[in-house]
Design goal:
The chain is mainly α and about 80 residues long. It is built from four helices and two strands, in the order H-E-E-H-H-H. It has one domain: Arc Repressor Mutant, subunit A (Orthogonal Bundle), CATH 1.10.10. About 15% of the residues are buried. This is DUF433 domain-containing protein.
């Protein structure tokens, strides 16, 4: 599932200076992560950015986890 989510994160030198964005849109991963970090809920972000989907938020969190080297170990 994570691999499919990560496909939503795109980089293109012609879009936002090559910074990671969502689905080729002009919305940077860092913008949405910043909103979440400031206390906005996922629901609030999705209400404000109606072109985003719930999987976009999950994709950004998975991307951030991967960048920080966080390993996910499934509980038995």
């Amino acid at each position: 599932m994570t691999a499919n989510l990560l496909e939503r994160i795109t980089t293109d030198p012609a879009v936002m200076g090559g910074q990671p964005c969502l689905r080729g849109l002009r919305i940077r991963v860092s913008d949405i992560l910043g909103l979440l970090a400031s206390g906005m809920s996922s629901e609030d972000v999705l209400a404000d950015y109606t072109y985003l989907e719930a999987d976009d938020i999950r994709a950004e969190l998975a991307y951030a986890a991967r960048l920080t080297g966080h390993r996910v170990i499934a509980a038995e």
